[in-house]
Amino acid sequence: MTDRLIYTAMSGATQALEQQAIVANNLANTSTTGFRAQLETFRAVPMSFGDGSSVNDQTTRTFVLSSTPGADETPGPIQQTGNPLDVAVQGDGWLAVQTADGSEAYTRAGNLHIDQNGQLVNATNLPVLGTGGPVSVPPGAQITIGKDGTISALAPGDPASAIAVVDQLKMVKPAAGTLTRSDDGMFRTADGNPLDADPSVTLAPESLEGSNVNPVNAMVSMITNARQFQMQTKMIENADQNDQTANQLLSFS
């Protein structure tokens, strides 16, 4: 039975460490614009002796395995910045960007800027998508973004009446839980196919959405995970002590 206890405790300790890493990453992103807290769930998996075809097959131990991770889709707080290139998605919805491999990804971070090529890009310099692809703006123009994502430009020296619509941000509204987080922090569809624009998505101009991570809850989770890890390692120590005691008893027999 000692080996069963060791492997069971080991699986629990491993998952506690993984959970701690996730919570630590969330805590490190409490001030990251548009960040969605990562979630991780675990499940108990009974391990049976035999192939399961016999009534004599019995469950010998239960391992802990991670389930499909997800993201907390609760909106973060919106704060007005006064920057005309800052936008915050209100309610459900995502901004579309083009990744380095040319595919489409989605983000809630609306801290945008114009790069040296005159393209509208996000904080990691990924092109922001409009109705026909990456958005380009006239050089030196004053840019404003409306609630519906409409991008308007006013050339230097022109009267206010000369403002012209340049493009419109592509905003999507997938069903809850259908996007998955990638290693680059962007969200994508399960099949990798781009989503259609949804005109019902609205923005808060000159504003940014903050992270939805609750620092207090994250700290409590870190303490809980640390205690769970200590409990599992204590079980491993006890199993080792039991094994040594059993060996001593066998050597006397």
Automatic annotation (TrEMBL):
What Pfam families does the record tag this protein with?
A: Flg_bb_rod, Flg_bbr_C, LlgE_F_G_D1
UniProt domain Flagellar basal body rod protein N-terminal: residue ranges: 6-36
Spell out the subcellular localization from the entry. Answer: Bacterial flagellum basal body
Where does the Flagellar basal-body/hook protein C-terminal domain lie? 207-249
All copies of the Flagellar hook protein FlgE/F/G-like D1 domain together span 88-153
**Keywords annotated in UniProt:** Bacterial flagellum, Cell projection, Cilium, Flagellum
List, alphabetically, the InterPro entries matched. Flag_bb_rod_N, Flagellar_basal_body_rod_CS, Flagellar_FlgE/F/G, Flg_bb/hook_C_dom, FlgE/F/G-like, FlgF, LlgE_F_G-like_D1
A single GO BP term for this record reads:
bacterial-type flagellum-dependent swarming motility
Task: Give me the Gene Ontology terms describing cellular component.
Answer: bacterial-type flagellum basal body, rod
Give the family from UniProt: Belongs to the flagella basal body rod proteins family.
Among PANTHER family, the record links this protein to: FLAGELLAR BASAL-BODY ROD PROTEIN FLGF, FLAGELLAR PROTEIN
Q: How does it assemble?
A: The basal body constitutes a major portion of the flagellar organelle and consists of five rings (E,L,P,S, and M) mounted on a central rod. The rod consists of about 26 subunits of FlgG in the distal portion, and FlgB, FlgC and FlgF are thought to build up the proximal portion of the rod with about 6 subunits each.
Which protein are we looking at?
Flagellar basal-body rod protein FlgF
The uppermost taxa in this organism's lineage are: Bacteria, Pseudomonadati, Pseudomonadota, Betaproteobacteria, Burkholderiales
